[in-house]
Amino acid sequence: MTTTQQTHKPTSAELDAADPLAAQRDAFYAPDADQLASYLDGNSLGRPLKVTSENLASFVHDAWGSRLIRGWDEQWMDEPTMVGDRIGEVTLGAAPGQTTVGDSTSVMLYKMIRAAVDAQPGRDEIVIDRDNFPTDRFIIEGIAKERGASIKWIAANPTSGVRAEDLDGLLGERTAVVVLSHVAYRSGFLADAKGITEKVHQAGALMLWDLCHSVGSVPIELDAWGVDLAVGCTYKYLNGGPGSPAFAYVNASQHDRLQQPIWGWMGADNPFGMTDSYKPAQGMRRFITGTPPVLAMQPMKDMLELIASVGMDAVREKSIKLTEYAITLSEEHLVPLGAEIVSPRNPAERGSHITVDHPLFADVTAKLWTKGVIPDFRPPHGLRIGLSPLSTSYAEVEVGVAAIRDALTELL
Ligand SMILES: *Cc1c(COP(=O)(O)O)cnc(C)c1O
Known about the structure:
Blueprint: H1 2-7, H2 12-17, E1 38-39, H3 50-67, H4 70-74, H5 79-92, E2 99-101, H6 105-118, E3 125-129, H7 134-147, E4 150-154, E5 175-181, H8 193-202, E6 206-210, H9 222-225, E7 229-232, E8 247-250, H10 298-310, H11 312-333, E9 340-341, E10 353-357, H12 361-369, E11 373-374, E12 376-378, E13 382-386, H13 394-411
Parallel strand pairs: 1-11, 3-4, 3-5, 5-6, 6-7
Antiparallel strand pairs: 2-8, 7-8, 9-10, 10-13, 12-13
Helix pairs in contact: 5-10, 6-7, 11-13, 12-13
The chain binds pyridoxal-5'-phosphate (PLP).
């Protein structure tokens, strides 16, 4: 009796029953069971909240439909920095006046990295890791070409990620800016943002964190860590919907030093003055370019309020438990079939997804999608299991890993 109790592994039903956040799952729109059995891709596209369809409808009627052009003066002009401040408060550890919303992540990365390079005269090197997300690397290739700068590539361990010591020998008086992902999109490695930022500052360089895979799932303290710049997605763990705009954070100490490269009227000092030439606005507004995507900013507000109501610490606690559970099940069911877990085992070094490698996982993923089991696939062999803490149940993880096992067994 005692021994069975000691070795008893909790079932998914027991874990769900004990989950203090379980009730939050009902807040999300749930498609029919034949459409969806297990959603393991909330790190790529978060699920909509039920309240979002009501709020979008009322935005169409009450704001757009009724206030029409007056809406710009009444609220929409301030929407990028108001929503930005809320993202900052709830998820970034950022005091007001340092965060704005707009553009795609790629364009926002371009604006911020270009601004950082231009603000560091005499420094002509940009540092990034080889395993970073393609758009981050491509944007930097483009900026390096445009500005005659060179790229210093960090060769980090791809199954973990970039550690402070990986920067040794790469930083110096020529380093303009270092760009890293807080959570690596493939392995899920969670970088030591505070320690790395300190090290980058010792070299006199600026630090930009890409928060796409951490914001809304991992607690972040940009102000306390002394981060200069950050950019992140809102359609992943902030559930802003397909193509919802990015956010950017610029530490207040850098506002006057930085000038972004796309000079549009909405980032100018007096947008409706129809002036002859560009003079940047004060504060975060100078990082805006054109008319803000106000409609596309609405859904993320609902998720921010849900996160605020439970707190980022509770979100993180569940995220760790979900990834632990996914690792345990993968070890039990997938590793014996030849799969390899390529994510950190230490939860302190892991974000909210794990990746498991097997040469047949491209075919496995395609098969599962037709059955309503939705992980995603990242070449060459990675099947990614994303665990969005507020919308994912332990039962879904169990169903998902069992389906992966069955599909792999059929193909072996
Ligand atoms: C998802 C993601 C992006 C996406 O960029 P878009 O411009 O929104 O397509 C960029 N960088 C990282 C690290 C990501 O995870």
